[in-house]
Amino acid sequence: MQIKNSALSLILEAQDLKSLDEIKLQFLGRSGKLTLAIKDIGKLPKEQRPEVGVLANEVKKVIEEALEQKVSSIKYQASSIRKKQIDTTAPGIKPNIGHLHPLSLVLYEVIDVFKSLGFVAADGPEIETDYYNFEALNIPKDHPARDTQQTLYLDTRNSRVAPGEIILRTQTSAMQGRVMEKIAPPVRVIVPGKNFRYEQVDASHSFEFWQIEGFLVDKEVRLTDLFGTIDYVLRKLMGQNIKLKFATTNFPFVEPGVDTYIQCTVCAGKGCSFCKQNGWSEIMPAGMIHPNVLNAVGYDPQKLSGFAFAIGFSRLVTLRYQMDDLRLLTNPDLRILEQF
Ligand SMILES: [Zn+2]
Question: How confident is the model at residue 331 (pLDDT cuts 50, 70, 90)?
């Protein structure tokens, strides 16, 4: 009994595995206290031997169990302490840091450049009415210009809307009517947004593409104001050394119509698949707003004039970073996106 108590109190006080080993040796070793006591059982009177033997075995068992428990508790404490310790010299895990998509990066720049010229940015619906997308822009129902914009119509069956009246907008110009109806002139507005057309997808075309519509209406606005604005904005965004050229063109909502071409930055004008081998890329159709468009929103074309333009934004971003395919802009591959 004495042996048991002194062994247990020693085990309880032990702080490390080494002292437990010593306690084990002290009691259960070859010349340990308990071992010797068990050996002495043989010297006892015969009738006492079985009782003391059983008791001694129980004591041995209790001491062994107490030792085992203490060993595992010391081991557990050691491991949990190790876990809590912070190695301040370890190199650490580098977190992944997100960043803006190239479309957003350039869009914020475009908005800043136009802001410096007094423009405000507006947002409009991607599901649009035929009226704002076409008719308010001097493109009546039977106009051949509709054929150039492969329009996606929404299914209006089971609704009160007449067939063909609701579409996915084909141009952000649809916002001209919406804005000018509400705001008295002068106006300076840009409208960044997505457009949709039923287009064959290739390196420079997509069924879904970004455009930045812009329009300015005031007294005595001239074609030279349009040229100056386009030249200033594109050089700010694409670099002072870009080459630009203007060509006359025909859009129903402008008179005269102007098309802006930028020398292809992918091939530096030599010709590649992006510019369809001609060295120039159409980037910004524009022109003086047609009097019919001003009339449609209640502006007096005798007193007011204005210009409008539509930056092919997906194409602009592609050319800015000399990508040879605008489909890369909607590719979620991180190897591409991490380059920006
Ligand atoms: Zn090219």
Answer: confident
Contacts of 295 (CB under 8 A, 6+ apart): 301
What confidence tens digit (pLDDT) does each residue in 40-81 have? 888 888 888 888 888 888 888 988 898 888 888 888 887 777
How many C-beta atoms surround the C-beta of residue 296 within 10 A?
Answer: 20
Question: How many A from CA of 231 to the centre of ligand 1?
Answer: 20
Instruction: Give the Å distance between the CA of 340 and the centre of ligand 1.
Output: 21
Q: What is the pLDDT of residue 43?
A: 85
Measured in Å, residue 263 CA sits from the centre of ligand 1 at 8
Task: Say how many Å lie between the CA of residue 239 and the centre of ligand 1.
Answer: 17
b/e map of 188-218 (b: 16 or more CB within 10 Å)? Answer: bbbbbbebbbeeeeebbebeebbbbbbbbbe
Average pLDDT value for the chain? 90
Q: How far is the CA of 42 from the centre of ligand 1 (A)?
A: 106
Which residue in the block uniquely carries the two structure tokens 């530096």? 268
Say what the pTM is: 0.69
Structure tokens given for 54: 């059983």
